[in-house]
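Here is one chain, start to finish.
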Amino acid sequence: MHDGMNRRHFMKHVAGASALALPTFNFVQTLRANETELKKDAKSLIIFWMGGGPSHMDLWDLKPGTANGGDFKPIKTPVDGIEISEVLPTVAKEFKNLSIIRSLVTNEGSHDRGTVLMNTGRVPNPIVQFPAMGAVVSSQLTPKDLPLPGFIGVGGTAQRIGPGFLGMAYAPFSVQNAGQPPANIKPPSGLGDKDMEMERLRRRQRLFYALEKEFTEETFPELRDQAEREAAGSPAQAHQTIYKKAFDLTVSPLRTIFEVSKEPKATIDAYGGMGNGFGMGCLLARKLVEKGVTCVEIDLGGWDNHGNIFPAIKGNGNNMGNGGRLDKGMGTLVKELTDRGMWKNTVVLWMGEFGRTPRINQNAGRDHWARCWSVVVGGGAIKGGQIYGSTSADGTDIKDKPCSIGDLYATIYKGLGLQPSTKIRDNLGRPLEIAEGKPLDGLI
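Its structure:
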């Protein structure tokens, strides 16, 4: 009976942990010593995830003067020969630091499969749960003493992909709304004033640790050491670790890092204001990588524009449109990273699950297109001001230098100082290189 109660207790909390997307990374045992200390050489990755399939034809690879050209005009950037859409004036100014890959070939035209492919670098497989790129990067680069999660997702896509076979130690911490502190680290209301609130939380902490310690020791009685239980893959130990991390962040001064509303008004406005959730996610990403977080993935949905694509991107009146949301968020973040001396240690990747058809359909929209499309990269060891590959005059074929998903991943990893041939083991115990391609010539 006692064993059954323990088992039910464990399963109940595991279900709760999944629902709340509680943090699942290796926090330090104590958060006192190095909370504000930065690793000077810490490398970070920021992923701009465009959910729904963004139109590269209207952003990065315009075809003006053709039947597929659409409503937008190209504008110049500081780099001769590189022009992008007029809806991205802030991003355009930063193109000495950014490069476009215009010849990505992925051939996965469904939302689900495209999302898995682009976030893992692997074709979806029913047998193997591949980890998100952020989980791989965190497993390779997150310092053991980092007092924050190594991988943070703003919006939900990172959580949807998850850590795969790397296990819960590398699962992303979830921030649903960048304008507010995550719900899973806010103390419950009604605990009194701040001092009383903290004291009650710490009492709960101590009680929780005592109960969980007993449970995990009962589950693996022959392993008395926490590190040994973790190495043995104890789910009970993982359960305890998940909740310990959540508690630690709840009582840590670092919990305020998730608040963006107290940033200077000029900074908030530059990111598009508090109403631009994506912009606030980008501002949060800057704050997080300043504190050493290894990967932040920021969602901007609403790109599945099968009809009326041009007003959806451009917006009107009080509606900023996805072009404006992207421009203010991404453009300002790149500027701040360079101004603050963080660019050489931060790689950025802009992508979605696929691009959109060159042909404009009868509903004034564009459909799914994975045959040849664009992504944007920069930072770290990646050269800026470059165009890799090109498409035909009408945008329907690769003209030169096709790029595979493996090549893209190899380029990103190399930009972070990781060898693409670095091996990790999948859930079947097989060694797997972190990227199945080669870094793109001229970008590294």
